[in-house]
Structures are given as C-alpha cells and as structure tokens.
Amino acid sequence: MKNKTFGSALLVAGTTIGAGMLAMPLTSAEMGFTYTMALLFLLWILLSYSALLFVEVYQTVQRKDAGIATLAEQYFGMVGRVLATLSLVIFMYAILSAYVTGGGSLLAGVLPFLGEHAAPISIIAFTVILGIFIVISTGAVDGLTRLLFMIKLVAFVLVLTMMLPLVQGENLMAMPLKEFLIISASPVFFTSFGFHVIIPSINNYLDGDIKRLRAAIIGGTALPLVAYILWQMATHGVFPQVKFVEIINNDPTLNGLVDATYHVTGSNLISGSVRLFSTLALVTSFLGVSLSLFDCLDDLLKRINIKAGRLALGVLTFLPPLAFALFYPEGFIAALGYAGQMFTFYGLVLPVGLAWRARKLHPNLPYRVIGGNLTLLIALLLGLLIMNVPFLIEGGYLPKVIG
C-alpha cells in the first residue's frame, strides 16, 4: 500500500522546486550569503504558515475537492472568487513571462551564430516547441515532464558535487552591498516557495485528513529548503561577490549566471552542467504552469459558454508571455518580481483573510494554526509589504536587486 502522505510531500516539493530557485543567486548576489539564509528561513516559515491556514479553513467546507476560489466565494462572495481567480491567472501569466525570457536567454547562449537575431529566435523557438506539447494533450506533457525531471535531478546533483568543493569561506562571509536588499529580493524569493495552488488536490487525495495534510506540507517544504540552502551555498561560496555582481550587471539573465560560473571556475563542464540544470528547471516549471493556465482558461471560457479548441487556448496561453519576452528579453527578474507580487495575494493575503473569517464563523474548529490573530496580523502586514516592493523600488525607496 503506497504512503499517500509521503507521496503528497513529494508533490509539494516537486511543485515548489522550479525555475524560481534559478533567480536566487541573481537577486541575492549583492546581499551576501548570511542575509540570503535569513530571507530563505523567513519565507519558508511564512509560506508554510499560510499553507496551514488553508488547511484550517478546509475544515469548514463540505466538499473536500473544493478549489481555493470556491473557498474565497464561500467567505467573501463573488468578489472573493473573482479576486482569487484574477490573482491566480495574472500570477501564471507573469511567471510564464519569466520562464520564456529565461529560457530564451539560455537558448540564445548556445546559438551565437545567429548574431543579433539570437534572442528573438530563441524566445520564439522555446515557446513554440514546448507549447506544442501543451496543445497536443496532458498525456504528452506528463511523459515529457517525467523524463526531464529525472534528468534535472541528476544534473542538480552533478552541479552540487562539482561546485560545493570549490566553496570558499570568505565568499560566504560577504555582507550586503546595499541596504534593504533583503526586502527588495523578497518577491522573487517568494515565488520559490509557491505550491499553494495544489493544496486542494492534496486535500482531496488525502481525504481531508488534517494531520496527514499538515505533515505533507511541512515535510514537503523542508525538502526545497534544504535544496535551496545547498544551491545558495554553491553559488555564493564559489563566486567572489564583487566579480559576480559585475558579470550579472552586464548580463542580468540566466545566461549571465552560466557565464559567471565559467569565468570563476574556468570549467566548461561545470558551466555546462549549470546551463543544463537551469534549462531543465525552466522547462519542467514552464510545462507545469502552462498546463495549469491552459486548463484554467478553458474552465473560465466554459463558464461564459465559449467553447475554444486546444489551438485557440494555446494562443491565449502563450501569446501574452511571448510578447512580453520579445519586447523585454532581459525581463526575467522583473517578471518574477511581479509574479511574486500576485502570488503574495493568492498565497498569503487571501489565506489570512479566509482564516480570520473562518475563526469568526467557526470558533471551535478542531485544528487551528498556532499564533492566534496577532500572527494573522503580522502575516498580513508582511504580505502587504511584499506586494508593494516593486512600487517601492520604482519610487526609489528600495534598491534594485540588480544594477
């Protein structure tokens, strides 16, 4: 008999570990390893807490397979459903835009013979080739994802095996080059712990068992935390901070991360492994989010009695992120920042609001997340701060994470 709790924890971990971790070294280059660790632990606690708030609220629903938009409608009416759905759709469009720009930059790095046309051709090729699998069927995506995920794990282990022995203590002791970078980087890091969209599926899979759901969330988020710590140790510990920042500022894309690896290590094998892992992490994340957005748009159109074919749905899914990437080919970090902004509402502000309403209406729930209403208030304030980080950066109140 298979262990559903363990399987659910792996599902949480698999959904969490994706392309968001690739942006971590880019956005934390000027921040230093110590502050990066502080931000990782803070967001891990914060997002595990918000996920457990969803668990608390799920005690009040009659259908264990109810989606998060249904929870929002139950407690805040149609306005809640619309806001939950909009924030999810915008989040998925924003993160797809990041994946397309990141994938395009990595592909362009191995197609230098295309000259100035390398970037647009790579962006279009990345989107169209992978988009074909989405349009064909979910089965085609499943088969490709299984294969690539296994190769990705091997590539990640290979990268760590080669880079961790090169770590230097003095590099890990580097301090922030600018004040408040830990706040500026928070939206991008926030997306790296984003698994909340699958909580309804796991709740249904575990038959609404609160104890098993809690264990799956805590265990499933601990695995990515360990992976992120090792990844950050490998990059921060190998790259001298000033040199790394200089390279990244010249090329603020994932290709810049690969170039920095080669400049510092002088090894084509190590930089090639980083490129392979980065590409596979992008592709597997891209396929998962694309399929979710594809199905979400299909469901939304059906609600207004519009039947769209798979090709039309594919165009609706991929045209906006493709346009963003073509007009802003270096927008990987910016797109992740705005994705983090939307996900902050969906993954933090919304569950805080739902838990507050549920506690008012159901004061004697068997399970209640530790901390009481004061912790809800603190989480809400942190969520509102993270949501407004891009605006504070644009207004000059916070430093840019790159540049």
Describe this structure in words.
This protein has 403 residues and is mainly α. The N and C termini lie far apart (53 Å). It has 18 helices and no strands. It is globular, with a radius of gyration of 21 Å. The protein is 77% helix and 0% strand. The protein has a single domain, classed as Up-down Bundle (Amino acid/polyamine transporter I).
Per-chain topology:
Elements: H1 4-16, H2 20-28, H3 33-58, H4 68-108, H5 118-136, H6 138-163, H7 169-172, H8 181-184, H9 186-191, H10 199-205, H11 210-238, H12 241-250, H13 254-265, H14 268-303, H15 310-327, H16 332-361, H17 372-387, H18 389-394
Helix pairs in contact: 1-11, 3-11, 3-16, 4-5, 4-14, 4-15, 4-16, 5-6, 5-14, 5-15, 6-14, 12-13, 13-14, 14-15, 16-17
Brief digest:
This is Aromatic amino acid permease. It is found in: Cell inner membrane. By secondary structure, this protein is mainly alpha-helical.
Radius of gyration: 21 Å
Enumerate the spans where pLDDT stays under 50 for 5 or more consecutive residues: none
- Sheet of most strands: none
Assess the beta-strand content as a share of residues: under 5%
Span between termini: 53 Å
CATH class: Mainly Alpha
CATH topology (level 3) name: Amino acid/polyamine transporter I
Instruction: Quickly give the structural class.
Output: mainly alpha
Please tell me the total number of domains. 1
Helices and strands, in order, run as HHHHHHHHHHHHHHHHHH
Average per-residue pLDDT, rounded, comes to: 85
The total of beta strands comes to: 0
CATH architecture: Up-down Bundle
Q: Helix count?
A: 18
